[in-house]
Amino acid sequence: MKLIIATIKPFKLEEVREALTAIGVRGMMVTEIKGFGSQSGHTEIYRGAEYAVNFVPKIKLEIVVAETMADQVVETIAKTAQTGKIGDGKIFVLGVEHAVRVRTGETNADAL
């Protein structure tokens, strides 16, 4: 099993969710986060005053899938979330040792 952690722009969430559902992803966790990467924040003007925005809003997706599906999920997220502009996000893939569905006690692949 693989854990895929992706950070994307907030307005891309619904489009990414629909694309992942279409390829068979059955669940994901979504968290609103703030962060910065190579853009290191930016400045904005509000009511005539300029101020620095050091962290930009992002969405973090956490998805656990069978190892055989991981590459397809990564490709789908990358293709769907891409705008071509700075700050499109990152995707990380990690191994998962064990999973348990709390309600039924099912484990590993059955728990997904």
TrEMBL record:
InterPro entries: N-reg_PII, N-reg_PII-like_a/b, N-reg_PII/ATP_PRibTrfase_C, N-reg_PII_CS, N-reg_PII_urydylation_site
Database matches in SUPFAM superfamilies: GlnB-like (SSF54913)
GO cellular component, one term: cytosol
Alphabetical keyword list: Nitrogen fixation, Nucleotide-binding, Phosphoprotein, Transcription, Transcription regulation
GO biological process, one term: regulation of nitrogen utilization
O-UMP-tyrosine modifications at: Y51
One family name in Pfam for this protein: P-II
One of the record's GO molecular function terms: ATP binding
Top-level division of the source organism's lineage: Bacteria
Signal sequence coordinates: none
Family: Belongs to the P(II) protein family.
Function: P-II indirectly controls the transcription of the glutamine synthetase gene (glnA). P-II prevents NR-II-catalyzed conversion of NR-I to NR-I-phosphate, the transcriptional activator of glnA. When P-II is uridylylated to P-II-UMP, these events are reversed. When the ratio of Gln to 2-ketoglutarate decreases, P-II is uridylylated to P-II-UMP, which causes the deadenylation of glutamine synthetase, so activating the enzyme.
Assembly notes: Homotrimer.
Protein name: Nitrogen regulatory protein P-II
Taxonomy of the source species: Bacteria, Pseudomonadati, Pseudomonadota, Alphaproteobacteria, Rhodobacterales
